[in-house]
Amino acid sequence: MTSLSERLKELGVQVGARNLNSPPQTSTGLDSILEGREIQTGNGKTYCIEKRYPLTHQHGHIPLEPPPISRVIAQWAKSPELTELPHDEIAFLDTETSGLSTGTGTFAFIVGVGRFEAQGFKIVQLFLRQPAEEVALLSALESHLASCQALVTFNGKSFDVPLLRNRYRLNNWDLPPINYLVQLDLLHLSRRLWRESLPDCCLLSLETYLLGVRRTAEDIPGWQIPDLYFDYLQTGDAHPLKNVFYHNAMDILSLVTLLHQASGLLDVHAEEEDLLVYEWIARGRLHEEQGDLEAAAQAYNAALTNNPLLDETHWRTLQRLSYVHKRRGDLSSAMALWRKAASQGNIYAYEEFAKVYEHQEKDYVTAMDWTQAAIHLMQADDFSPIQRARWLPELEYRLKRLERKIQSQKGCNDIESLQPS
Amino acid sequence: MSLEALLKSWQEEATISDNIVHWQTLPAHNAVVVPFPGTLHPLLQKVLQGMGIHSLFSHQAETWDHLSAGRHVALVTGTASGKTLAYNLPVLNHLIGDDNARALYLFPTKALAHDQLEKLQDIIGRLGSFGLTIPPVAAYDGDTPSSHRPHIRRNAHIILTNPDMLHTGILPRHTDWDEFFTGLRFVIIDEIHTYRGVFGSHVANVLRRLQRITTFYGAQPQYLLTSATIANPAELADRLIEKPITLVTNDGAPRGERHFLFYNPPITVPDLGLRASSLQESLRLADDLLTYNLQSVLFGRSRRTIELLVSYLRQRRPKQATAIRGYRSGYLPHERREIERGLREGKVRAVTATTALELGVDIGSLTAAVMVGYPGSISATWQQAGRAGRTDQPSLAVLVASASPLDQYLAHHPEYFFGRSPEQALINPYNPLIVLDHLQCAAFELPFQKEEGYGQMHPTEVTDLLTWLVEAGVLYLSGERYFWTSSEYPSGNVSLRTVSAKRVLLQTKDDSSKVTIGEIDRESAPWFVHPGAIYLHEGRMYLVEDLDLEQNLAYLQPIQSDYYTRPQRNTTVELIEQLNTRKVKGATIAHGDLKITSQVTGFRKIQWFTHANLGAEELDLPPTTLQTSGFWIGLSEEVLAQLREEGLWQGDQISYGPGWKHQRDLARARDEFKCRACGEPERDKAHHVHHLVPFRTFSTPKEANRLENLVTLCSACHLRAEGVVRIRSSLVGLAYTLEHLAPLLLMCDTSDLGVHTDITSPLTDGQPTVVIYEHVPAGLGFSERLFTQHEELIRAAHELVNTCPCNDGCPSCVGPGGEQGTGGKSETLSLLELLR
After folding, report:
1. Which burial class, exposed, middle or buried, applies to B642 when counting CB atoms under 10 A from its CB (0-12, 13-18, 19+)?
2. Which phi and psi angles does B585 have, rounded to 5°?
């Protein structure tokens, strides 16, 4: 009787897409390659590499000093206590994993944690020599984070943290220790700050355009990382992994200087004349998200006055500012802006006017005029079909409702006029 | 107008009543009811009373009792017997008292889950009006917006989903469902009869994975399965969940009187045994149903059929066009919802549907169900018939027989249908390919321990496969556990329905934007939406402009076309391994693993209504391959010799028409009076002249006798050539018969099997061979059964062909004449005589 696997092979079935390297050799001493050491935990042994950087270390064009966390950022992260935290209680964390999906089959084989200490910045990289050592690695991570209050990551909210949480759960921790930490995800923050001014907000772009970081040839692209680890498992040769450790350490250093950059931008005491238009907008958006409408209006105003151009950015900023005014209840400032926008054919402004006249002023005829003007404009000018689909049904619906309201108002008036005075 | 009036008119109308070959009246039966169990929460009792329910049907109460006793239950009762309530009650009753308890509902389709969600929410809403709040229930499937998902995962106490979502979305991310799995108390699996064949074999493996996960979280849920009537519900349930299970089969629900008619379309061409088309006859019946204003459903076997039905029926009744709708897979969810609502509200008067509507989707109570052609199994026939008559009113089911051998067999032997229990639903949770797929998914979800089993698979077998996966680098053995070491997300690559996970989207280009009108699985795409195909959707015709198999997109253009298309396929069969063989009368038979390569090579354009061939076009599409198991019959030398001899004896009786003598002499002269096969020159007697493409294939002698179609052969070579034609013809006839009869013995769908004939087959050292293979990769065990039941199959085939009233082959026995160059009835019969 042939075994199942033989039968499958006869059926021509192949599994695994990779070409395996040569079978395991006697493992070369990790210590000499990775310059780390084995550590003992309550749940067995794991491996740890430490790297220290003096406070004078320049990462790109920013020195590796403890970054202040500005009030705006702390508020945005919904954790005001962040501004007060001692620097050594903030952990900068990045993981290297066996895949990109967040399913339960993906695990972290390097967990790097950077922290400030008295003399400088120290990165601890926990390394999974064998998958079976995961429980030890997680224990080591738990004790390393025990004295921390906050976790700074790049996309950690949707990737590193849920992944680690999964790993703790799968290794029978009832409550993953990272649940208690305040999270600050710099990817989300960066998107708010630099979305408009950078081609994208991946870490590499931020490093290139903002931090002045250039990685050496030692770095490798992220998508190659899982395979390097799998190769290591097959061959026992850790040499190629050195690049992954470098990659991980660089990511962590960039977290520090990126936070510097963001805090600097959002520090109320920053040299305001140095801020660029997009930085004002970014600031406005963060304030707006936090409901600090005064500060948002100020920032948007500054963005408008500092922008010499009547470009798309101008009109978008004007729109945002008008909504901030509206939310503050300052309708006359908002209307002043809408008048400008309407003169430029911005449909939203027409609609806002229609809304004001319909709901606030109860002046249905004027509301109808604005609505009709908008419809007319959409039909005449060359708006795209998408824009038409976005606006026209709404406008036409409003028009019908206004017609009804005018009719019934008229009816009431007629009845009133019939009454003897 | 009433159903009685319509039935009376049919009885009085000879052109209808003559075709009703069987009229079975199934008497009404009363409900068997039991008072509410004492443990049923008082508020639930109040809710039920508010819905007009004051007692339980006996099967609902029985289910309640078994569940209370901690047993796993399979509930097998008819359509509309209140199965939903049978599981909703115990689940809700338990959830009211236990805040940590969770329930998982599995439905075969998203549509069904959404339908049942509404029913559940109705009960929960009523409970709410009495001040009892139940934590939310939610559907969780491909249509659930990702922004809602985290909330549902954390909060819903009942999740309604389908096996596909469990497979790709839930199990591989089970840590997100931590609380849900920890509290999992009930697993409801509805309509398990749909989990058969390849789908069922996959689902059984998904359930094995679910079992591993619930064990990890320390939960021991109770299983409640429901099924339509099949022969082996206990076996199917057991193979699906691999646990002892208690069967509840006594249906206590009431039912109105039912009329079940077998309708056989009249013979139109007696010589050819041709009958009027089942489609046209069904249209006539449907037309009458509309006239009498009786809401009805027409079931067709293929998408094509139901699209034809819609467009023909609309042509007959243009004023009611919007009340006539089509319904099948490939329609978008909102379209389906709209049609379902239309049916419930009575706005839709006739719906033409595929099996997509056979499931328990709530469409209210219809009066009549017309089946255009035998649905393929006894079980499915009862399911479809059950779509009519959900109330205590009389109802009607009509089976309109098509020309297929199985339909004709049943039209002549209705007692076979009414006397026989429905088929068994077969699954093979041990199909090695399917196991291999799911073992990888399972390893991704939780590392296997050394010596861990998998379902009821022995740890040794599991270790064998895991070791192989380790060798391939997909798994890594570390500290007695197998870790997933690939960056792939394995369940993303495994489709539960087909061999491949890929679907082809059907898109039309509007002025500026693209609209997706439906989708189709990757394997079927070259068949249905090859370039140049006319594709029907919601009664509209589309011309396929392009099929992009890299992007998995087909581009369609709405069109008004006077023709439809029929693709042509080229298939080759290679042997991988022969597993068993034996000598039988006249042949050697075997079964084993095969590689089937098929390619859509072209298509023909066929005119609507007249079915005239308007021309053919060639296509250049990549072939698809299938590794599966098959059963084959290789004819013996003696049989071949006998067939050749009979051929000689029968030959030369055809008149080749005027001018034949002249054409024959021209051919001889062209060939320099030599045999083109062996070179032998003519001596005292003239050589024969042979038609390359057989004479009777052509409509006129002139065409048949074209010089290009003629070749000079000596008498010995001519005998061989004619023999080949004759043998090929008998093979094709045999294959056709076996393909259509096999499902009767095998209890599978016709579509599960393919046939292939080869005059010199590599499977049998060059002997003429018929191959029957399974469409499921690696097979589900059908071939092996055919191998053991060969004699019975041949006997049934002989009986069918021998008693068929046609003269020279018809669609109901050996297949229509002409296609392969002959009407092969006599040849097939001779062959069957020799094999019998």
Report:
1. middle
2. -60, 120
In this structure, are residues A10 and B576 in contact, taking their beta carbons and an 8 Å threshold?
Answer: yes
Q: In chain B, helix, strand, coil percent, each to 5?
A: 40, 25, 35
- Which residue of chain B has the CA closest to A21? B473
Q: How many residues does chain A have?
A: 421
Give the model's pLDDT for residue B822: 47
Hey, which residues 101-120 in chain A have their CB within 8 Å of chain B?
A: 101-105, 107
Q: Which among B435, B469, B476 has the least Cβ separation from residue A15?
A: B469
DSSP at B255:
B
Contact between B182 and B189 (Cβ < 8 Å): no
DSSP calls for B738-764: HHHHHHHHH-S-GGGEEEEEEEEEGGG
The 10 Å Cβ neighbour count of residue B601 is: 16
On the question of pLDDT at B538 being above 80, the answer is no
**Distance, CA of A300 to CA of A328 (rounded, Å):** 14
> Distance between CA atoms of A74 and A90, rounded to whole angstroms?
13
Dist. CA B791–CA B586, nearest whole Å: 11
Long-range Cβ contacts of B459-468 (<8 Å, 24+ apart)? B461/A3, B461/A4, B464/A3, B464/A4, B464/A5, B465/A4, B465/A5, B465/A8, B465/B435, B465/B436, B465/B439, B466/B439, B467/A5, B468/A5, B468/A8, B468/A9, B468/A15
Query: ipTM more than 0.90?
Result: no
Average pLDDT taken over every residue of chain B: 86
φ, ψ dihedrals at A218, nearest 5°: -65, -20
- pTM score: 0.75
What gap in Å lies between CA A130 and CA A108, rounded to an integer? 11
- Enumerate the residues of chain A whose CB falls inside 8 A of the CB of residue B480: 132
Report residue B656 as tokens.
Answer: 């080749």
The string of pLDDT tens digits covering residues B411-442 is 887 877 887 666 667 788 888 888 999 999 99
Cβ atoms of B529 and B239 closer than 8 Å: no
Residue A165 with chain B: CB contacts under 8 Å? 175
Q: B200-214, B298-312, B377-391, B470-484 — which is least confidently predicted?
A: B377-391
Q: Please name the residues in contact with A107: beta carbons below 8 A apart, sequence gap of 6 or more.
A: A97, A98, A128, A131, A134, A163, A167, B483
* In the block, residue with structure tokens 């994975």: B209
Task: Let me know: does B832 contact B798? Beta carbons within 8 Å.
Answer: yes
- Cα–Cα distance between B619 and B527 in angstroms, integer? 11
Q: What is the pLDDT of residues B254-267, one digit of tens each?
A: 888 999 999 999 98
Hey, are the CB atoms on A98 and B513 less than 8 Å from each other?
Answer: no
Alpha-carbon distance A128 to A225, whole Å? 14
**Placement of tokens 């019946």 in the chain:** B285
Mutant choice from A6, A10, A45, A104 vs B, greatest count of B C-beta within 10 A: A104
Q: Return d(Cα B212, Cα B218) in angstroms, integer.
A: 10
**Is there a contact between B480 and A132 if contact means CB atoms under 8 Å apart?**
yes
Q: B473 vs A12: CB contact, 8 Å cut-off?
A: no
Q: How far is B449 from chain A (nearest CA, A)?
A: 11
Q: Tell the residue number behind the tokens 């049919």, with chain if given.
A: B10
Distances (CA, A) of B258 to B360, B634, B726: 19, 48, 49
Q: Residues B461-485: pLDDT tens digits? A: 999 999 999 998 899 999 899 999 9
Strand partners, B448: B482
Which chain B residues are closer than 8 Å to A100 by Cβ?
Answer: 487
Smallest Cα distance from A230 to chain B, Å: 6
Model confidence over B612-655: pLDDT tens digits? Answer: 678 888 998 888 777 788 999 999 999 888 887 776 544 445 67
In 3-state terms, what secondary structure has residue B697? helix
